[in-house]
Structures are given as C-alpha cells and as structure tokens.
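Lecture 7, part 2: worked example. A protein chain together with PBG.
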Amino acid sequence: MFPFHRPRRLRQNPSIRNLARETSLDRTKLIYPIFINAQLQKESPIEAMPGVCEYGLERAVEEIAFLSEKGLLNFLLFGAPSSKDEQGSEAFDEEGIVQRALRNIKKLVPGSVIFTDVCLCGYTDHGHCGVIKDGKIDNDESVEILAKAALSHARAGADFVAPSDMMDGRVLMIRKKLDENGLSDVGILSYAAKFSSAFYGPFREAAHSAPKFGDRKTHQMDPANRREALKEMQSDIEEGADMIMVKPALSYLDLIREAKDRFLVPVVSYNVSGEYSIVKAAAQKGWIDEKSIRDEILLSIRRAGADIIITYFAKDIFLE
Ligand code: PBG
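Predicted complex, written out as structure tokens:
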C-alpha cells in the first residue's frame, strides 16, 4: 500500500521539528569547573583554554556568585595549593584552598551545588595521583589520604565529592569515612571510567598537575577497553557511588550509552579540556562556527545518554 515512508513529514517546519526532537541541551544539567589557586590574588587566564581562568580565593567566590545570578548553579572545584609535598598534605588541610573556598561559597551562594575534585596530583610535588612507595603509587595508602581529603571537603560544605584518582577501593573508603563522621547526606560522583587520555593536556597546565616522571597508565584506563570500563562503573556503584562518570566524552560516547542502558544511577560525562580547546582553536582561526559545533557536541553527549555534562562551555552558554 505505502511504497515508502516519509520521515520528512516530521521535519517540515520548526514547530514540528520541535515536537519531534528527542533530546535537548538542558542548561540545568551542566556543571562548570572552577580552578582556585592559593598562590593567586586575582585571576590568570589559561592559555590553552581560551575563556577559562584560574582564580584566587576571593575572585573564585565572586565568579561563582556572578554566574549563579545568571542561573548557573553547579560547579566543580579544583584547587592548586600554596605548596606541595610528597603526601599532598594540603589536599586534606582544613585551611586548604578548596576547603576555605567551600565555606565562603556556601555562605554567599547557598543555592549552589558544589562538587569537589578529590585527587592528589595537584598537591604532590611529584605530580602523581597517589603517594609513592618504592617507586610505585601505593594504592591503599593513597586511598587513606584521599578519604581524608574527601572528608575535609564534606566538612567544609561540599554537596558531592568527586574522586578522580582512579585508585581501587576509594569509593568504598570515602563512603565509609563520610558516614562515620555523620556526613551521610554528602554524595559521591565517581570518575568511574576515566581513561588515560591525551585530551587532558590543557588541563594539566591549569591544575599544575602534570606528573614529573612516568605517566598515569597504572591507574587510568586503557582507551582500548570497554568491558573493563563497565566493570569499573559497576564496582563503583557497588561501593556506594551516587553518580558515575565517563571521561573524556567524545571518544567514549559508546560507553556513555552502555552506562545509561545498564546502570540505574545518573550518568555524568566530562567534556574535557582538550575537547574544549580544539573547538576554541579552530573557531579562533575562523574554520568552524563555534556555537553550532559546541551545541552539536553537547547534544551528542546527551543523546549518547549523559544525564549531566561537566563542561567549560557552560559559562559561555549562560552568558550569551
Ligand atoms: C585530576 C584530573 C584531571 C582532569 C580532571 N581531574 C587530569 C588528569 O587526570 O591528568 C582532567 C580534566 C580536563 O582535562 O578537563 N586527576
């Protein structure tokens, strides 16, 4: 009877296309990363990430207050300490930069949702995500320190702690530590499937966290592995993660989809620094249309299954 289908019926005009649209770029689902540096007074632009700055404490809080007035309420905090040591001690110091910022933000911008990155790489003098023993990252000792850092963030007012170190068992130890200290309302967003990726390059400039020797391949995942990523996500959920993350986003859209289909917790994806810089650089050269490409990229991450996206583009989106 009908020799062929006419899908173009649903694309005839903008109103019908709106009705037929399956996914939307919901601004309320975006999280904006903020870099706070204890050695800075004002702010300093990050060269490889046009439009992104690192801030001194006061300026960071002002920036968050300003963006929250524009409607952007979700932030992920990264700290750069005043000094580094072998253990990354400032990571769990009650007077550390992130802890101080948290107390101020929670006073000034009570409606905000604050996530804190929990890792040691920005705090250790060797730049590794854990502590070194006999030339290797010691998993269990690192986890103890990470749990202390998470507890100090939670005490200072973090809504969610986000361990990005990829040590084994850290979600369990952090959950235990928070619960034992009466902080059962503080959630955990685990960087669960975090790959050892060249897309983090520009970030390491921002966080001053490049390793002084070696690489992160003994804890971050091999980009070739899919089943292992599912196992990482499953075990983090079993250990108590409230949300799981796939990171980076664009080369890993398949895993975002699988996470969404398999697991019952919100799926977060991190549209990382290299993915941002590529777009900004090509746009500055006039080779691409930045806004259309940005929106297409973020929409594709949502369509793949991400409930929430961490992205440096969030600020542009809320300010335009
Ligand atoms: C810290 C951390 C990294 C990123 C987030 N947390 C870098 C790394 O693992 O080397 C990357 C974020 C980005 O590239 O935007 N462990």
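The chain has a mean pLDDT of 96. The first strand starts at residue 30 and ends at 37. Keep this in mind for problem set question 3.
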